[in-house]
Here is the input.
Amino acid sequence: MPSAPVVSNSDGSFVLTGIIRQGEDCLAFFEDTRTGKTATVGARETLGRGRLVLITQDIVHYACDGDLRRIEIGSTLAGTAASFPKPVTATTTATST
Here is the structure.
């Protein structure tokens, strides 16, 4: 079952991370890069500033402000490639006495 729609002013913060087929329908997974939370969204549901019109096995068709965008996995709702911050890794240094 899809999660509650997420509303945002920034389509650039939602990244398409995956698509699954459930029966005859497809569901899309979008990560909100501001919060790290993932939303599961079906066709005809709202997300960001628009609505998902159609979900296929590898593309989401997204309507916003009269524009229809093809969103590929790894892209934002704005239609641009996603960029994630580099993870911070801990470094250890050995000291000898």
Observations:
- The first strand starts at residue 6 and ends at 7.
- The CA atoms of residues 62 and 69 lie 5 Å apart.
